[in-house]
Design a protein that fits this description.
Blueprint: H1 9-26, H2 29-45, H3 47-58, H4 62-88, E1 91-93, E2 102-110, E3 113-117, H5 125-137, E4 140-144, H6 150-163, E5 169-171, H7 176-183, E6 189-193, H8 196-209, E7 212-216, E8 221-225, H9 231-243, E9 253-259, H10 263-278, H11 282-287, H12 297-312, E10 316-319, E11 323-324, E12 329-330, E13 333-336, H13 343-346, E14 353-359, H14 362-371, E15 377-381, H15 385-394, E16 399-402, E17 423-424, H16 429-435, E18 437-445, H17 461-470
Helix pairs in contact: 2-4, 2-5, 2-6, 3-4, 3-6, 4-5, 5-16, 9-10
The structure holds nicotinamide-adenine-dinucleotide.
Length: about 475
Amino acid sequence: MDHRSFKTPAQIFVDLAEGNPQRRMAFDPAQRRAALQALSRAIHDCEAEILAALAEDFAKPEAEIRLTEILPVQAEISHALRHLKTWTKVRRVRPTRAMLGTRARIVPEPKGTALIIAPWNYPLALSLGPLVSAIAAGCAAIVKPSELAPASAAVIAQIVEEALPADLVRVVQGGVEVSQELLDQPFDHIFFTGSPRVGKIVMAAAAKHLTSVTLELGGKSPVIVGPGADLKKAARMIAWGKFANAGQTCIAPDHVYVAKQIEAPFLAELKAAIARMYGKTEEAQAASRDLARIINPDHFARLMGMIESAQSAGAKALTGATSEAASRYIAPTVLMGTDPSMRVEQEEIFGPVLPVIPFDDAADVVARIEAGPKPLALYIFERDRGLIDRLRRATSSGAVGVNVALVHYLHQNLPFGGIGNSGVGAAHGHWGFEAFTHLKPVLENRFAPLAMLMPPYRSGRMAKLAQKFLR
Ligand SMILES: NC(=O)c1ccc[n+]([C@@H]2O[C@H](COP(=O)([O-])OP(=O)(O)OC[C@H]3O[C@@H](n4cnc5c(N)ncnc54)[C@H](O)[C@@H]3O)[C@@H](O)[C@H]2O)c1
Protein backbone atom coordinates (compact mmCIF):
# COMPACT_ATOMS: atom_id res chain seq x y z
CA MET A 1 0.00 0.00 0.00
CA ASP A 2 1.15 3.55 -0.61
CA HIS A 3 3.16 4.39 2.47
CA ARG A 4 2.95 8.15 2.06
CA SER A 5 -0.69 8.39 2.88
CA PHE A 6 -1.88 5.20 4.62
CA LYS A 7 -4.97 5.45 2.48
CA THR A 8 -6.83 2.46 1.10
CA PRO A 9 -6.54 1.75 -2.63
CA ALA A 10 -10.15 2.96 -3.00
CA GLN A 11 -9.35 6.29 -1.29
CA ILE A 12 -6.27 6.76 -3.45
CA PHE A 13 -8.44 6.25 -6.51
CA VAL A 14 -10.93 8.85 -5.29
CA ASP A 15 -8.12 11.37 -4.64
CA LEU A 16 -6.71 10.92 -8.13
CA ALA A 17 -10.01 10.85 -9.94
CA GLU A 18 -11.33 13.94 -8.12
CA GLY A 19 -8.26 15.95 -9.00
CA ASN A 20 -8.46 14.75 -12.53
CA PRO A 21 -11.05 16.97 -14.27
CA GLN A 22 -8.88 20.03 -13.61
CA ARG A 23 -5.72 18.11 -14.49
CA ARG A 24 -7.25 17.06 -17.77
CA MET A 25 -7.52 20.72 -18.72
CA ALA A 26 -4.14 21.68 -17.30
CA PHE A 27 -2.16 18.62 -18.31
CA ASP A 28 -1.02 19.94 -21.63
CA PRO A 29 1.64 18.32 -23.83
CA ALA A 30 4.37 20.52 -22.31
CA GLN A 31 3.58 19.14 -18.85
CA ARG A 32 3.46 15.59 -20.21
CA ARG A 33 6.92 16.12 -21.67
CA ALA A 34 8.23 17.40 -18.36
CA ALA A 35 6.76 14.37 -16.55
CA LEU A 36 8.32 11.95 -19.06
CA GLN A 37 11.70 13.65 -18.78
CA ALA A 38 11.51 13.51 -14.97
CA LEU A 39 10.65 9.81 -15.13
CA SER A 40 13.58 9.15 -17.45
CA ARG A 41 15.98 10.99 -15.11
CA ALA A 42 14.70 9.13 -12.05
CA ILE A 43 15.19 5.76 -13.76
CA HIS A 44 18.70 6.82 -14.70
CA ASP A 45 19.47 8.01 -11.17
CA CYS A 46 18.06 4.84 -9.58
CA GLU A 47 20.00 2.42 -11.79
CA ALA A 48 21.99 0.92 -8.92
CA GLU A 49 18.79 0.36 -6.91
CA ILE A 50 17.07 -1.21 -9.93
CA LEU A 51 19.96 -3.63 -10.51
CA ALA A 52 20.00 -4.59 -6.83
CA ALA A 53 16.23 -5.06 -6.58
CA LEU A 54 15.93 -7.34 -9.59
CA ALA A 55 18.94 -9.33 -8.45
CA GLU A 56 17.29 -9.71 -5.05
CA ASP A 57 13.94 -10.80 -6.49
CA PHE A 58 15.20 -13.47 -8.90
CA ALA A 59 18.91 -13.04 -9.58
CA LYS A 60 18.23 -11.38 -12.90
CA PRO A 61 21.56 -10.82 -14.71
CA GLU A 62 22.69 -7.20 -14.95
CA ALA A 63 22.98 -7.23 -18.75
CA GLU A 64 19.43 -8.56 -19.05
CA ILE A 65 18.15 -5.87 -16.67
CA ARG A 66 19.72 -3.20 -18.84
CA LEU A 67 18.49 -4.73 -22.11
CA THR A 68 15.01 -5.88 -21.12
CA GLU A 69 13.96 -3.57 -18.28
CA ILE A 70 15.73 -0.21 -18.48
CA LEU A 71 16.24 0.10 -22.24
CA PRO A 72 12.61 -0.60 -23.24
CA VAL A 73 11.27 2.05 -20.82
CA GLN A 74 13.88 4.66 -21.79
CA ALA A 75 13.27 3.89 -25.48
CA GLU A 76 9.52 4.20 -24.93
CA ILE A 77 10.08 7.60 -23.26
CA SER A 78 12.32 8.99 -26.01
CA HIS A 79 9.95 7.66 -28.69
CA ALA A 80 7.01 9.36 -26.95
CA LEU A 81 8.95 12.61 -26.56
CA ARG A 82 9.83 12.54 -30.26
CA HIS A 83 6.27 11.91 -31.42
CA LEU A 84 4.09 13.54 -28.78
CA LYS A 85 3.47 16.62 -30.89
CA THR A 86 2.11 14.54 -33.78
CA TRP A 87 0.13 12.17 -31.56
CA THR A 88 -1.62 14.98 -29.67
CA LYS A 89 -2.39 17.03 -32.77
CA VAL A 90 -6.03 17.74 -33.56
CA ARG A 91 -6.60 16.14 -36.97
CA ARG A 92 -8.96 17.75 -39.44
CA VAL A 93 -10.77 15.28 -41.68
CA ARG A 94 -12.43 16.02 -45.02
CA PRO A 95 -16.20 15.95 -45.17
CA THR A 96 -17.67 12.91 -46.89
CA ARG A 97 -20.19 13.54 -49.70
CA ALA A 98 -23.19 13.34 -47.42
CA MET A 99 -21.51 15.70 -44.94
CA LEU A 100 -20.74 18.58 -47.31
CA GLY A 101 -21.11 21.87 -45.51
CA THR A 102 -19.72 20.58 -42.21
CA ARG A 103 -16.30 20.78 -40.59
CA ALA A 104 -14.88 17.79 -38.74
CA ARG A 105 -11.90 17.07 -36.59
CA ILE A 106 -10.58 14.33 -34.31
CA VAL A 107 -9.45 15.49 -30.90
CA PRO A 108 -7.24 13.07 -28.92
CA GLU A 109 -8.32 13.36 -25.28
CA PRO A 110 -6.95 11.56 -22.22
CA LYS A 111 -9.38 8.85 -21.10
CA GLY A 112 -9.01 10.06 -17.51
CA THR A 113 -7.76 7.98 -14.60
CA ALA A 114 -6.08 4.70 -15.51
CA LEU A 115 -5.15 1.57 -13.59
CA ILE A 116 -2.00 -0.30 -14.59
CA ILE A 117 -1.61 -3.80 -13.11
CA ALA A 118 1.76 -5.42 -13.77
CA PRO A 119 3.23 -8.93 -13.47
CA TRP A 120 6.50 -9.86 -11.73
CA ASN A 121 8.55 -11.21 -14.65
CA TYR A 122 9.66 -7.87 -16.15
CA PRO A 123 8.62 -5.80 -13.17
CA LEU A 124 10.06 -2.47 -14.27
CA ALA A 125 9.34 -2.61 -18.02
CA LEU A 126 5.78 -3.85 -17.62
CA SER A 127 4.75 -1.26 -15.03
CA LEU A 128 6.66 1.83 -16.18
CA GLY A 129 6.34 1.05 -19.92
CA PRO A 130 2.52 1.37 -19.89
CA LEU A 131 2.88 4.33 -17.51
CA VAL A 132 4.86 6.17 -20.21
CA SER A 133 1.92 5.69 -22.59
CA ALA A 134 -0.55 6.83 -19.91
CA ILE A 135 1.44 10.01 -19.22
CA ALA A 136 1.92 10.69 -22.94
CA ALA A 137 -1.84 10.42 -23.33
CA GLY A 138 -2.40 12.81 -20.40
CA CYS A 139 -3.95 10.31 -17.99
CA ALA A 140 -3.55 10.16 -14.24
CA ALA A 141 -2.65 6.62 -13.19
CA ILE A 142 -2.36 4.15 -10.35
CA VAL A 143 0.34 1.53 -10.89
CA LYS A 144 -0.01 -1.79 -9.06
CA PRO A 145 3.22 -3.82 -9.41
CA SER A 146 3.31 -7.52 -8.59
CA GLU A 147 3.71 -8.63 -4.99
CA LEU A 148 5.88 -11.54 -6.19
CA ALA A 149 8.79 -9.18 -6.95
CA PRO A 150 8.64 -7.02 -3.79
CA ALA A 151 12.08 -5.41 -4.03
CA SER A 152 11.31 -4.33 -7.60
CA ALA A 153 7.89 -3.01 -6.53
CA ALA A 154 9.60 -0.87 -3.86
CA VAL A 155 12.02 0.63 -6.41
CA ILE A 156 9.16 1.34 -8.82
CA ALA A 157 7.39 3.22 -6.00
CA GLN A 158 10.60 5.12 -5.20
CA ILE A 159 11.13 6.14 -8.84
CA VAL A 160 7.55 7.33 -9.26
CA GLU A 161 7.57 9.25 -5.97
CA GLU A 162 10.80 10.96 -6.93
CA ALA A 163 9.78 11.83 -10.45
CA LEU A 164 6.06 12.49 -10.59
CA PRO A 165 3.52 14.54 -8.65
CA ALA A 166 1.34 12.50 -6.31
CA ASP A 167 -1.82 13.91 -7.83
CA LEU A 168 -0.78 12.47 -11.19
CA VAL A 169 0.63 8.99 -10.51
CA ARG A 170 0.52 6.75 -7.46
CA VAL A 171 2.06 3.35 -6.92
CA VAL A 172 -0.06 1.06 -4.79
CA GLN A 173 1.81 -2.02 -3.60
CA GLY A 174 0.09 -5.23 -2.58
CA GLY A 175 -1.28 -8.56 -3.73
CA VAL A 176 -4.56 -9.98 -4.94
CA GLU A 177 -6.77 -8.20 -2.38
CA VAL A 178 -5.31 -4.78 -3.17
CA SER A 179 -5.65 -5.54 -6.86
CA GLN A 180 -9.30 -6.50 -6.40
CA GLU A 181 -10.08 -3.40 -4.37
CA LEU A 182 -8.60 -1.31 -7.15
CA LEU A 183 -10.57 -3.25 -9.76
CA ASP A 184 -13.80 -2.34 -7.94
CA GLN A 185 -13.21 1.36 -8.71
CA PRO A 186 -14.66 3.07 -11.79
CA PHE A 187 -11.38 3.69 -13.65
CA ASP A 188 -11.48 5.13 -17.16
CA HIS A 189 -9.05 2.52 -18.52
CA ILE A 190 -7.39 -0.61 -17.18
CA PHE A 191 -4.09 -1.77 -18.63
CA PHE A 192 -3.39 -5.28 -17.33
CA THR A 193 -0.37 -7.46 -18.02
CA GLY A 194 -0.44 -10.99 -16.65
CA SER A 195 -1.95 -14.42 -17.10
CA PRO A 196 -5.05 -15.21 -19.18
CA ARG A 197 -6.69 -16.55 -15.97
CA VAL A 198 -6.42 -13.21 -14.17
CA GLY A 199 -7.10 -11.35 -17.44
CA LYS A 200 -10.62 -12.81 -17.35
CA ILE A 201 -11.09 -11.58 -13.75
CA VAL A 202 -9.91 -8.10 -14.80
CA MET A 203 -12.23 -7.98 -17.81
CA ALA A 204 -15.22 -9.10 -15.71
CA ALA A 205 -14.44 -6.39 -13.12
CA ALA A 206 -14.04 -3.77 -15.88
CA ALA A 207 -17.41 -4.80 -17.35
CA LYS A 208 -19.16 -3.63 -14.14
CA HIS A 209 -18.21 -0.03 -14.95
CA LEU A 210 -17.92 -0.50 -18.73
CA THR A 211 -14.26 0.46 -18.35
CA SER A 212 -12.15 -0.11 -21.44
CA VAL A 213 -9.28 -2.61 -21.10
CA THR A 214 -5.96 -3.45 -22.63
CA LEU A 215 -5.04 -7.03 -21.71
CA GLU A 216 -1.47 -8.16 -22.35
CA LEU A 217 -1.65 -11.88 -21.61
CA GLY A 218 0.41 -15.00 -22.15
CA GLY A 219 0.14 -18.58 -23.35
CA LYS A 220 2.25 -20.97 -25.37
CA SER A 221 4.27 -19.28 -28.13
CA PRO A 222 5.41 -21.97 -30.59
CA VAL A 223 8.51 -22.04 -32.76
CA ILE A 224 8.64 -23.74 -36.14
CA VAL A 225 12.07 -24.70 -37.46
CA GLY A 226 11.60 -25.52 -41.12
CA PRO A 227 13.77 -27.76 -43.29
CA GLY A 228 15.45 -24.69 -44.83
CA ALA A 229 16.43 -23.01 -41.55
CA ASP A 230 19.94 -21.77 -40.84
CA LEU A 231 20.30 -24.19 -37.94
CA LYS A 232 23.19 -22.56 -36.15
CA LYS A 233 21.57 -19.13 -36.08
CA ALA A 234 18.14 -20.59 -35.29
CA ALA A 235 19.47 -22.64 -32.37
CA ARG A 236 21.27 -19.65 -30.84
CA MET A 237 18.30 -17.34 -31.19
CA ILE A 238 15.86 -19.92 -29.79
CA ALA A 239 18.15 -20.80 -26.85
CA TRP A 240 18.61 -17.13 -26.00
CA GLY A 241 14.88 -16.42 -26.37
CA LYS A 242 14.04 -19.35 -24.14
CA PHE A 243 16.65 -19.10 -21.41
CA ALA A 244 16.84 -15.31 -21.02
CA ASN A 245 15.12 -14.44 -17.73
CA ALA A 246 15.14 -18.23 -17.14
CA GLY A 247 12.28 -18.63 -19.61
CA GLN A 248 10.00 -16.40 -17.53
CA THR A 249 9.03 -14.27 -20.53
CA CYS A 250 5.55 -13.90 -22.02
CA ILE A 251 6.95 -14.10 -25.57
CA ALA A 252 9.59 -16.77 -24.86
CA PRO A 253 9.63 -19.63 -27.35
CA ASP A 254 7.48 -22.12 -25.42
CA HIS A 255 8.21 -25.24 -27.50
CA VAL A 256 9.80 -26.04 -30.84
CA TYR A 257 8.39 -27.95 -33.80
CA VAL A 258 11.33 -29.07 -35.92
CA ALA A 259 11.23 -30.69 -39.37
CA LYS A 260 12.16 -34.35 -38.88
CA GLN A 261 14.89 -34.39 -41.53
CA ILE A 262 16.89 -31.76 -39.64
CA GLU A 263 16.00 -32.76 -36.08
CA ALA A 264 19.37 -34.35 -35.22
CA PRO A 265 21.60 -31.50 -36.48
CA PHE A 266 19.23 -28.95 -34.91
CA LEU A 267 19.45 -30.65 -31.51
CA ALA A 268 23.25 -30.73 -31.80
CA GLU A 269 23.27 -26.98 -32.57
CA LEU A 270 20.90 -26.31 -29.68
CA LYS A 271 23.16 -28.15 -27.25
CA ALA A 272 26.18 -26.28 -28.58
CA ALA A 273 24.36 -22.93 -28.30
CA ILE A 274 23.46 -23.62 -24.65
CA ALA A 275 27.04 -24.67 -23.89
CA ARG A 276 28.40 -21.56 -25.60
CA MET A 277 26.09 -19.16 -23.76
CA TYR A 278 25.85 -20.73 -20.30
CA GLY A 279 28.73 -23.19 -19.94
CA LYS A 280 29.74 -26.64 -21.16
CA THR A 281 29.15 -28.59 -17.96
CA GLU A 282 26.29 -28.77 -15.46
CA GLU A 283 28.53 -27.14 -12.85
CA ALA A 284 29.54 -24.30 -15.18
CA GLN A 285 25.88 -23.61 -16.01
CA ALA A 286 24.85 -23.62 -12.34
CA ALA A 287 27.66 -21.12 -11.67
CA SER A 288 26.82 -18.93 -14.70
CA ARG A 289 25.85 -15.40 -13.76
CA ASP A 290 23.86 -15.12 -16.96
CA LEU A 291 20.96 -17.30 -15.83
CA ALA A 292 18.18 -15.84 -13.70
CA ARG A 293 16.49 -17.88 -10.97
CA ILE A 294 12.87 -18.99 -10.72
CA ILE A 295 10.74 -16.35 -9.02
CA ASN A 296 9.52 -18.38 -6.01
CA PRO A 297 9.30 -21.92 -4.54
CA ASP A 298 5.79 -22.48 -5.95
CA HIS A 299 6.89 -21.83 -9.52
CA PHE A 300 10.06 -23.88 -8.92
CA ALA A 301 7.91 -26.84 -7.76
CA ARG A 302 5.52 -26.35 -10.69
CA LEU A 303 8.35 -26.46 -13.23
CA MET A 304 10.15 -29.41 -11.64
CA GLY A 305 6.79 -31.23 -11.51
CA MET A 306 6.38 -30.59 -15.24
CA ILE A 307 9.86 -31.94 -16.03
CA GLU A 308 9.57 -34.98 -13.76
CA SER A 309 6.08 -35.98 -14.89
CA ALA A 310 7.19 -35.72 -18.54
CA GLN A 311 10.26 -37.84 -17.82
CA SER A 312 8.29 -40.49 -16.00
CA ALA A 313 5.91 -40.68 -18.97
CA GLY A 314 8.83 -41.32 -21.33
CA ALA A 315 10.31 -37.93 -22.27
CA LYS A 316 14.11 -37.62 -22.32
CA ALA A 317 16.27 -34.65 -21.38
CA LEU A 318 18.79 -33.77 -24.10
CA THR A 319 20.35 -31.42 -21.60
CA GLY A 320 19.44 -29.98 -18.18
CA ALA A 321 16.64 -31.25 -15.93
CA THR A 322 18.96 -30.66 -12.98
CA SER A 323 18.11 -28.15 -10.28
CA GLU A 324 18.88 -26.70 -6.89
CA ALA A 325 15.84 -25.95 -4.77
CA ALA A 326 17.57 -23.64 -2.26
CA SER A 327 18.53 -21.09 -4.93
CA ARG A 328 15.54 -21.96 -7.17
CA TYR A 329 17.93 -22.83 -10.01
CA ILE A 330 16.80 -24.95 -12.94
CA ALA A 331 19.37 -25.78 -15.61
CA PRO A 332 18.54 -24.92 -19.24
CA THR A 333 16.51 -27.99 -20.14
CA VAL A 334 15.67 -29.43 -23.56
CA LEU A 335 13.10 -32.24 -23.60
CA MET A 336 12.57 -34.74 -26.40
CA GLY A 337 9.83 -37.34 -26.77
CA THR A 338 7.11 -35.25 -25.12
CA ASP A 339 3.50 -35.75 -26.22
CA PRO A 340 0.21 -33.80 -26.01
CA SER A 341 -0.89 -35.72 -22.90
CA MET A 342 1.94 -34.15 -20.88
CA ARG A 343 1.54 -30.90 -18.89
CA VAL A 344 4.63 -29.50 -20.58
CA GLU A 345 2.73 -29.58 -23.91
CA GLN A 346 -0.52 -28.29 -22.40
CA GLU A 347 0.31 -25.43 -20.02
CA GLU A 348 2.32 -22.26 -20.59
CA ILE A 349 5.79 -23.39 -19.42
CA PHE A 350 7.15 -20.02 -18.25
CA GLY A 351 10.52 -21.46 -17.23
CA PRO A 352 13.79 -22.78 -18.72
CA VAL A 353 12.27 -25.92 -20.23
CA LEU A 354 12.10 -26.41 -24.00
CA PRO A 355 10.26 -29.37 -25.55
CA VAL A 356 11.41 -30.13 -29.09
CA ILE A 357 8.76 -31.89 -31.17
CA PRO A 358 9.62 -33.33 -34.63
CA PHE A 359 7.17 -33.06 -37.54
CA ASP A 360 6.87 -34.64 -41.00
CA ASP A 361 4.34 -32.28 -42.50
CA ALA A 362 4.07 -28.54 -41.74
CA ALA A 363 0.28 -28.85 -42.20
CA ASP A 364 0.14 -30.95 -39.00
CA VAL A 365 1.94 -28.20 -37.08
CA VAL A 366 -0.46 -25.59 -38.44
CA ALA A 367 -3.42 -27.79 -37.42
CA ARG A 368 -2.04 -28.12 -33.88
CA ILE A 369 -1.44 -24.41 -33.51
CA GLU A 370 -4.86 -23.56 -34.88
CA ALA A 371 -6.56 -26.10 -32.58
CA GLY A 372 -5.18 -24.36 -29.48
CA PRO A 373 -5.65 -20.86 -28.03
CA LYS A 374 -4.11 -18.12 -30.19
CA PRO A 375 -0.46 -17.60 -29.20
CA LEU A 376 1.09 -14.27 -28.22
CA ALA A 377 3.99 -14.89 -30.62
CA LEU A 378 4.81 -17.39 -33.34
CA TYR A 379 8.40 -17.80 -34.46
CA ILE A 380 9.38 -19.22 -37.83
CA PHE A 381 12.97 -20.18 -38.64
CA GLU A 382 13.28 -20.86 -42.36
CA ARG A 383 14.87 -19.42 -45.48
CA ASP A 384 12.21 -20.44 -47.99
CA ARG A 385 10.06 -17.33 -48.38
CA GLY A 386 7.13 -19.37 -49.76
CA LEU A 387 7.02 -21.61 -46.68
CA ILE A 388 7.39 -18.63 -44.33
CA ASP A 389 4.42 -16.90 -45.98
CA ARG A 390 2.29 -20.06 -45.99
CA LEU A 391 2.89 -20.61 -42.27
CA ARG A 392 2.20 -16.97 -41.46
CA ARG A 393 -1.04 -16.91 -43.45
CA ALA A 394 -2.32 -20.22 -42.10
CA THR A 395 -1.94 -19.25 -38.43
CA SER A 396 -3.27 -16.54 -36.12
CA SER A 397 -1.06 -15.11 -33.38
CA GLY A 398 -0.35 -11.83 -31.60
CA ALA A 399 2.88 -11.38 -33.57
CA VAL A 400 5.16 -13.28 -35.94
CA GLY A 401 8.95 -13.35 -35.72
CA VAL A 402 10.84 -14.64 -38.75
CA ASN A 403 14.36 -15.86 -37.97
CA VAL A 404 14.17 -13.85 -34.76
CA ALA A 405 12.80 -14.22 -31.25
CA LEU A 406 11.77 -11.73 -28.55
CA VAL A 407 13.09 -8.53 -30.07
CA HIS A 408 9.85 -7.38 -31.71
CA TYR A 409 9.15 -6.26 -28.12
CA LEU A 410 11.80 -3.55 -28.56
CA HIS A 411 10.32 -2.07 -31.76
CA GLN A 412 8.19 0.95 -30.87
CA ASN A 413 6.83 1.26 -34.40
CA LEU A 414 5.14 -2.14 -34.05
CA PRO A 415 1.98 -2.70 -32.00
CA PHE A 416 2.68 -5.17 -29.19
CA GLY A 417 -0.21 -7.33 -28.08
CA GLY A 418 -2.06 -10.59 -28.31
CA ILE A 419 -5.21 -11.88 -29.92
CA GLY A 420 -7.95 -13.91 -28.24
CA ASN A 421 -6.48 -15.80 -25.29
CA SER A 422 -3.17 -13.92 -25.56
CA GLY A 423 -4.67 -10.47 -25.21
CA VAL A 424 -6.91 -7.56 -26.15
CA GLY A 425 -5.59 -4.29 -27.58
CA ALA A 426 -1.99 -3.23 -28.07
CA ALA A 427 0.87 -1.48 -26.32
CA HIS A 428 4.00 0.49 -27.27
CA GLY A 429 4.56 3.73 -29.12
CA HIS A 430 1.52 5.22 -30.77
CA TRP A 431 -0.59 2.15 -29.93
CA GLY A 432 0.15 2.56 -26.23
CA PHE A 433 -0.77 6.24 -26.49
CA GLU A 434 -4.06 5.35 -28.18
CA ALA A 435 -4.91 2.78 -25.50
CA PHE A 436 -5.13 5.63 -22.96
CA THR A 437 -6.69 8.12 -25.39
CA HIS A 438 -10.23 8.80 -26.49
CA LEU A 439 -10.27 9.91 -30.12
CA LYS A 440 -13.13 12.36 -29.86
CA PRO A 441 -14.83 13.32 -33.12
CA VAL A 442 -16.10 16.89 -33.25
CA LEU A 443 -18.48 17.76 -36.07
CA GLU A 444 -19.54 21.36 -36.72
CA ASN A 445 -22.30 22.42 -39.02
CA ARG A 446 -21.54 25.33 -41.31
CA PHE A 447 -24.00 25.31 -44.23
CA ALA A 448 -25.05 21.66 -44.61
CA PRO A 449 -28.63 21.32 -45.91
CA LEU A 450 -29.66 19.29 -42.85
CA ALA A 451 -33.26 20.51 -42.83
CA MET A 452 -33.80 18.11 -45.73
CA LEU A 453 -33.32 15.21 -43.31
CA MET A 454 -36.33 16.27 -41.28
CA PRO A 455 -40.05 15.46 -41.58
CA PRO A 456 -42.39 15.59 -43.35
CA TYR A 457 -40.76 12.65 -45.20
CA ARG A 458 -43.63 12.11 -47.67
CA SER A 459 -42.22 14.33 -50.39
CA GLY A 460 -39.69 11.60 -51.30
CA ARG A 461 -36.90 14.16 -51.17
CA MET A 462 -35.02 12.11 -48.56
CA ALA A 463 -35.15 8.93 -50.60
CA LYS A 464 -33.88 10.75 -53.69
CA LEU A 465 -31.11 12.37 -51.69
CA ALA A 466 -30.06 9.09 -50.11
CA GLN A 467 -29.99 7.44 -53.53
CA LYS A 468 -27.84 10.23 -54.87
CA PHE A 469 -25.28 9.94 -52.10
CA LEU A 470 -25.18 6.16 -52.05
CA ARG A 471 -24.62 5.84 -55.74
N1 LIG B 1 1.59 -10.10 -22.94
C1 LIG B 1 2.53 -9.59 -22.16
O1 LIG B 1 3.08 -8.51 -22.44
C2 LIG B 1 2.97 -10.31 -20.92
C3 LIG B 1 4.14 -9.87 -20.29
C4 LIG B 1 4.56 -10.53 -19.14
C5 LIG B 1 3.84 -11.57 -18.62
N2 LIG B 1 2.72 -11.99 -19.24
C6 LIG B 1 1.99 -13.14 -18.72
O2 LIG B 1 1.85 -12.98 -17.30
C7 LIG B 1 1.87 -14.24 -16.66
C8 LIG B 1 2.91 -14.25 -15.56
O3 LIG B 1 2.81 -13.14 -14.71
P1 LIG B 1 2.10 -13.22 -13.27
O4 LIG B 1 2.31 -14.56 -12.68
O5 LIG B 1 2.55 -12.04 -12.50
O6 LIG B 1 0.58 -13.04 -13.70
P2 LIG B 1 -0.72 -12.96 -12.79
O7 LIG B 1 -1.86 -12.89 -13.74
O8 LIG B 1 -0.74 -14.02 -11.75
O9 LIG B 1 -0.57 -11.57 -11.98
C9 LIG B 1 -0.50 -10.33 -12.63
C10 LIG B 1 -1.00 -9.23 -11.71
O10 LIG B 1 -2.36 -9.50 -11.35
C11 LIG B 1 -2.53 -9.49 -9.95
N3 LIG B 1 -3.49 -10.56 -9.61
C12 LIG B 1 -3.21 -11.88 -9.44
N4 LIG B 1 -4.34 -12.56 -9.15
C13 LIG B 1 -5.34 -11.65 -9.14
C14 LIG B 1 -6.75 -11.74 -8.90
N5 LIG B 1 -7.32 -12.89 -8.62
N6 LIG B 1 -7.47 -10.61 -8.98
C15 LIG B 1 -6.90 -9.43 -9.29
N7 LIG B 1 -5.57 -9.27 -9.49
C16 LIG B 1 -4.81 -10.37 -9.43
C17 LIG B 1 -1.16 -9.72 -9.36
O11 LIG B 1 -1.07 -9.13 -8.10
C18 LIG B 1 -0.22 -9.09 -10.39
O12 LIG B 1 -0.02 -7.73 -10.12
C19 LIG B 1 2.19 -15.24 -17.75
O13 LIG B 1 1.00 -15.85 -18.21
C20 LIG B 1 2.81 -14.38 -18.85
O14 LIG B 1 2.74 -14.93 -20.13
C21 LIG B 1 2.27 -11.37 -20.38
